[in-house]
Amino acid sequence: MIVVRGGTDKPVSSQKLANYFETRTDIEGYLYLGYPIIGTIEGGYQIDALLLSDRHGAVIFHLIEGAYNEEIEIADIQDENYTKLESKLKQHKDLTKGKNLAVQLNVATFASAWTGRSDINSEHPILVCENDLADFLETKNWDDNQTYQKLVSVIQSITTIRNRNKRGYVKKSDSKGAKLKKLEESIANLDRQQSTAVIETVDGVQRIRGLAGSGKTIVLALKVAYLHSKNPDWRIAVTFNSRSLKNQFKHFITLFTLEHKNEEPDWDRIDIIHAWGSPSIRGIYYEICLKHNIEYFDFKTAELMAKSYGKGFDVACEKAHTEIKEFQQYYDVVLVDEAQDFSPYFLRLCYGILKQPKRLVYAYDELQNISNKQMPSPEELFGLDASGKPFVSLQNTQGKPKQDIVLDVCYRNSKPILATAHALGFGIYREKGLIQMFDQHQLWEDVGYKVKDGKLADGEPVTLTRDEKSSPEFLEKHSPIDDLIIFESFNSDAEQIAYLISEIEKNIKEDELKLDDIMVIHPEPYTAKRAVGVIREELFKKGINSNLAGVTTTPDEFFKDNAVVFTQIYRAKGNEASMVYIINAQECFDAFNVAQKRNMLFTALTRSKAWVRVLGYGQNMQALKQEFENVKYNKFELKFTYPTAEERKKLNIVNRDMTEQERKKLQKKSESANDLLQSLMIGEIHKEDLSEELRAKLKELL
Amino acid sequence: MPSSVIIFKQIEKITAKLIEIGLSAEQNFPSNQSGRIAYSGMQDVSIAMKNIAYEEIYKKLEETKNYNIKMLDGALIQMLYSFEDNKLISHRLAFFPAPTLESFQNEPELYENDEIYADILGRNIVTFPIRFDYDPDNFEEIKHPKTHATLGQYKNCRIPVSEPLTPEIFIIFLLRNFYNPAFRKHTQKFIISSQRFAKTITNQEKSLLHLGIY
Predict the structure, then answer these.
(1) Is the per-residue pLDDT at B124 higher than 70?
(2) Which of A160, A182, A678, B210 has its CA 20 to 30 A from that of A206?
(3) Do the Cβ atoms of A530 and B22 come within 8 Å?
(4) Higher per-residue pLDDT: B111 or A172
């Protein structure tokens, strides 16, 4: 029996009920606490607890916390519970038989403090102890496994994420458009892990992580709707880094709240709010500055204070965090999406403005990039209190809501694409050896790999594979592997461009793809615009419109345009498309900063929801293609010897992520070292010309 | 005198050029419906938006994709011409820069790393829309010159202009003044053909401070 713990205002009886069912390991099924909420004409109707079992059907538990009270109209309450849930379930055709519900549905009151008042066999049963529960269940037998499975999926799906019928135009039955149509229909519902993540409510900090494409944003939006419906008085904030998420959140939260409450969310209580903000855009940080009367830094001024590029916000948050002696606490819940983009100080600010018991939910992409910048542990994130104890440490304890949730199913990338992205990103089958590797072995399993052979340990050979569970088959079954991923090597740029243009034309004219199904990614941010100009112009002349993902264009699935998107790699982050073209991929094969380049390739590959084409020209492209052939030959499994800590350290130094500036600096330095060497060798400088001290230091370091 | 076909072709060509040099982030295909030259999806909202704040106007135009070209920095460019019997009867050429520089702040790499866009980022910029109208129907000497320029949303701002503008002249004016580094880099790609409209400015208007090509 799996217990899913939502928020509840009846903690004692909920706990007792949960305790009992946790011991009943013989029953297959789920016990939901504080869930579901049913939208009715009078608003959201709350069910205290719901049992789903293949042997006993569905049982609603009405919970009573206190001592006996004759004013409680048990019969009325039970009947209402019954009719509300019945009418909700009846909306699903799969759950009806004729005019009736095909699910065995029962309702009982569980009042653990009503000793002596149990009445199991009444029309409106009252249960007070564990024996009552057992006896009651004995009398409710059900045997309809098929309907049970459907019942579970209806309750778990939480909502019906309706697919706007955007592929009504599809005519051929086996075109790429038709395949996408099927694919989009399959991903519509939530899985068990996701629905657990939505419902489980922690009085404290909760972490949700998973690969990109594991549905975090939807989970967070549903969570907001669920918490808001349950606790209409709470002030809830959901915050993020990319502004394009705002519309998505708004759309989903409205949709889900409507479903739970039958009314619009109360926007005075829910803030969908940018992390930074400014006088013209609401933001968590900006409002903290106002409320605490501390100096606000905008992008420019913050960036000036930062030591390295892109760290402005971190510095601003750190400054704010140090300056605030006592936090004003004005939110009941704060949900942070894309937490990987923030420094610990931003999370600490969010933590600061929360009322007790500090309900902070933060979600992040494990492996947004594969460089060694992994998210710090919660202990590091939130720091230590005066006595040296961490403010936050996460544990999943039996009998408590889960504080740490991993969404390990990736619904965006199929196994071949994801495994290729990892293999090339880490250089698993690279001739010159690995490029980078996780320090924590555990991460491989967290992101959905299984050990097929060998061992995940330093110095040990290992074979990792993704299984049907973490990479659902339907994501790849629609097309043969040789169509899912194509690496194409050309002799020249001109050939590459000609191929790209003719393929895009074909996608639109024959494959029944829409323009906005297609994304073209250029791996080099600095030259992307110039490189794609000619291609876009050519397409424009052929009547195919295209957009440049730029400062002002935000990736937003609700306002998609009728245009192919061209983007440089950093802008592609957080975006996805069904058909992804990566051009000039030869630049990613080998370079001075190969790790960075391979990270780009990883990000680019993982943008694809269905197909990916990797194009490039010249020798390096041929070599990259060969590397991919090796991935394919190894059946998209990762076979390698895990580098030892020392080897990893070396990899990290050689292949560390460097900014353009750092790279230039390093190049210059190594040139001048070379100069020195030359001069010494030809006797232009004598070693005695260098000071004793310098020589000693050099000797020591080298 | 440039015909509607020539004007249409110019818009087509200059849009392609802006795409090629990477200045156009989004664009609509130009359209020509018996002399009314606009862009696909055009929706005239100019009157409905008469009394609305500039931020709102910009937002509306952007959302509804009411433009020929959306520049990399968010500025919107509209080029609308009307011909009757192949004679120009009106034009509205407009430049709507993005009213907030917010997005640059959020995603600045592009502007920081690519000198072409260096001067768009200046923090002391006040953005305002610019319009060139050819509207002979409402002509009143000096008060309402046939061709005039309007800066900002100032109600009675009608700076006399010597003649209706071709798309080339208009776009090159914008590039030279608002996208200067890009323009300098690609000057040779933007050549103004000799096709021009006839002068419409009066002698009295000429005696005032005005814009003109001579």
Answers:
(1) no
(2) A160
(3) yes
(4) A172
Beta-carbon neighbour count of residue B157 at 10 Å? 12
The ipTM of this complex is 0.86
The pLDDT assigned to A84 comes to: 93
Residue B106 pLDDT class (50, 70, 90 cuts): very low
Task: Categorize the per-residue pLDDT at B117 as very low, low, confident or very high, splitting at 50, 70 and 90.
Answer: very low
Answer whether the bond into residue A376 is a cis peptide, omega within 30°.
Answer: no
How far apart (Å, rounded) are the C-alpha atoms in residues A351 and A239? 13
Give CA–CA dist A95/B98, Å, rounded: 53
Cβ contact, residue pair A536, B21, below 8 Å: no
Distance separating alpha carbons of residues B27 and B14, to the nearest angstrom = 11
Contact A537 B20 (CB under 8 A): yes
- Residue A21: what pLDDT? 93
The three-state (H, E, C) secondary structure of A193-255, written as one string: HHHHHHHCCCCCEEEEEECCCCCHHHHHHHHHHHHHHHCCCCCEEEEECCCCHHHHHHHHHHH
Closest CA of chain A from B131, distance in Å:
22
Closest C-alpha among A185, A192, A197, A194 to residue A161 = A185
Question: What residues have CB less than 8 Å from B43, skipping those under 6 apart?
Answer: B64, B66
Cβ-defined contact of B74 to A551 (cutoff 8 Å): yes
B105: confidence class by pLDDT, cuts 50, 70, 90: very low
* CB burial of residue A141 (10 Å; 0-12, 13-18, 19+): exposed
Q: Do A537 and B74 touch (CB under 8 A)?
A: no
Q: What pTM was computed for the model?
A: 0.81
Amino acid at A319: K
Q: In sequence order, which residues have a C-beta less than 8 Å from that of residue A509 and are 6 or more positions away?
A: none
What are the structural domain ranges in chain B?
A: 4-206
DSSP secondary structure letters along A480-546: -HHHHEEEEEESSHHHHHHHHHHHHHHHHHTS---GGGEEEEES-TTTHHHHHHHHHHHHHHTT--E
pLDDT at B4: 94
Gap between the Cα atoms of A689 and A492, Å rounded = 51
* pLDDT recorded at residue B121: 42
pLDDT of residue A463: 97
Residue A269 · residue A233 · CB < 8 Å: yes
Cβ of A514 under 8 Å from any chain B Cβ? no
For residues A326 and A292, what is the distance between their CA atoms, to the nearest angstrom? Answer: 9
Among B22, B28, B29, select the one facing A548 at the smallest CB separation.
Answer: B22
Q: Which residues of chain A have pLDDT under 70?
A: 160-165, 187-188, 243-244, 280, 309-310, 367-374, 526, 528-529, 550-561, 571, 573-574, 654-664
Percent helix, strand and coil across chain A, each to the nearest 5: 40, 20, 40
Closest CA–CA distance from residue B82 to any residue of chain A (Å) = 23
* Residue A550 Cα distances to A160, B40, B73, B178, B186, angstroms: 33, 22, 8, 18, 20
Angle between helices A216-230 and A192-199 (to 10 degrees): 40
Min CA distance, A333 vs chain B (Å)?
25
Say yes or no: B66 contacts chain A, CB-CB below 8 A.
no
Place of tokens 């080998």: A590
The pLDDT value given to residue A574: 66
Give the position of tokens 């069912």: A21
CA nearest to A271, candidates A245, A229, A238: A238
Quote the pLDDT of residue A252: 86
Q: Which residue has the tokens 């699903």?
A: A92
Alpha-carbon A52 to chain mean position: 28
* Tokens 């190969």, located at residue: A594
Nearest by Cα to B145 from B211, B69, B200: B200
Residue A389, amino acid: K
